[in-house]
Amino acid sequence: MQPLNTILEPGMIVRHPGQPDWGPGQVQSVIGARITVNFREAGKQVIDGTRVELMPVHNP
Predict the structure, then answer these.
(1) pTM for the full predicted model
(2) Residue pair 22/45 in contact by the 8 Å Cβ criterion
(3) Which residues pair with 30 in a beta bridge?
(4) Can you give the pLDDT at residue 1?
(5) Measured at the alpha carbon of residue 45, what is the angle toward residues 31 and 8, in degrees to the nearest 5?
(6) Which residue ranges make up each domain of the chain?
(7) Per residue in 29-45, pLDDT tens?
(8) Mean pLDDT of all residues in the chain?
(9) d(CA 12, CA 1)
């Protein structure tokens, strides 16, 4: 099974499992392991995909 981060694309809605208070975020870009996400409550964050597995949200 492939890691979840490998299926992420710009426009997808995700949650950060370690920061639930950030709320849902929209993926802005995926460049290698660097995933830029604009979170509702935390703004733009660059996530290291080798350390954090973002969770896709089906009903934001």
Answers:
(1) 0.89
(2) yes
(3) 35
(4) 42
(5) 45
(6) 4-12+19-51
(7) 999 999 999 999 999 99
(8) 92
(9) 20
